[in-house]
């Protein structure tokens, strides 16, 4: 089994230690660091190159949104799963825009946290049910106020199929199996999708394609 190296970044020591114990007692995980502030989270990520960073939104010294942005700029292979008590729209949008690979609330069960980290590590996107509902509400509001933007190049039917699979949380490998494509072809489609939608992450691609009506979100 491939070991998922995880870094836990939260300013509350009890939560950090609780998450450390959870992952150390779960097969297939190795905790490579604990960060108590944003700057430390960024420095440790660049040094240790974890597979997944479990990141809080509100962090001392450097907030979670900036940490996320810097990680995606300087350590693009590292996945970031937001783990926060904040569910306000402004935080959700900021983290997604900065490249979050998922967003869980701290009320999530241990099983849901473990499953989410595994999915994110495999290349999928994961959102807490409440976060998904808020995203859908925002998208519905946007769709009522705007028509399909003429500045966006139209997506092909195959690209839409790939995007729908991404919205369902599938990794590139899983998408290749579902659509009977090679992994290389799926990656090429993802590159074209990013270019046409003018986005830089899977989360942004999902949000923008939902906003423009290309795909439907699956809770």
As a percent range, the share of strand residues is: 5-15%
Distance between the termini: 29 Å
Number of helices: 10
Strand order of the largest sheet: 2-1-3-4-5-6
- Given as residue ranges, the uncertain stretches (5+ residues, pLDDT < 50) are 146-150
* Structural class determined from secondary elements: alpha/beta
List the secondary-structure elements in sequence, H or E: EHEHEHEHEHEHHHHH
Query: Rg, please?
Result: 17 Å
Percent helix range: 40-55%
Principal-axis shape equals globular
Mean pLDDT: 88
The biggest sheet, with number of strands, parallel, antiparallel or mixed sense and barrel status, is:
6 strands, parallel
Number of strands: 6
């Amino acid at each position: 089994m491939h070991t998922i190296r995880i870094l836990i970044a939260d300013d509350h020591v009890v939560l950090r230690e609780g998450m450390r114990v959870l992952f150390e007692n779960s097969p297939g995980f190795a905790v490579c660091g604990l960060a108590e502030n944003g700057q430390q989270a960024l420095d440790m990520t660049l040094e240790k190159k974890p597979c997944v960073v479990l990141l809080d939104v509100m962090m001392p010294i450097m907030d979670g949104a900036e940490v996320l942005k810097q990680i995606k700029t300087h350590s693009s292979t590292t996945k970031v799963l937001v783990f926060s008590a904040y569910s306000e729209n402004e935080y959700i949008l900021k983290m997604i825009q900065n490249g979050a690979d998922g967003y869980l609330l701290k009320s999530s069960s241990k099983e849901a946290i473990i499953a989410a980290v595994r999915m994110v590590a495999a290349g999928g996107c994961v959102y807490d049910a409440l976060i998904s509902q808020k995203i859908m509400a925002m998208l519905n509001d946007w769709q009522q106020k705007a028509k399909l933007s003429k500045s966006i190049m139209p997506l092909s039917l195959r690209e839409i199929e790939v995007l729908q699979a991404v919205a369902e949380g599938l990794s590139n490998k899983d998408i290749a199996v579902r659509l009977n494509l090679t992994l290389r072809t799926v990656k090429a489609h993802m590159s074209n999708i990013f270019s046409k939608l003018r986005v830089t992450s899977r989360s942004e691609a999902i949000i923008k394609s939902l906003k423009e009506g290309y795909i439907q979100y699956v809770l």
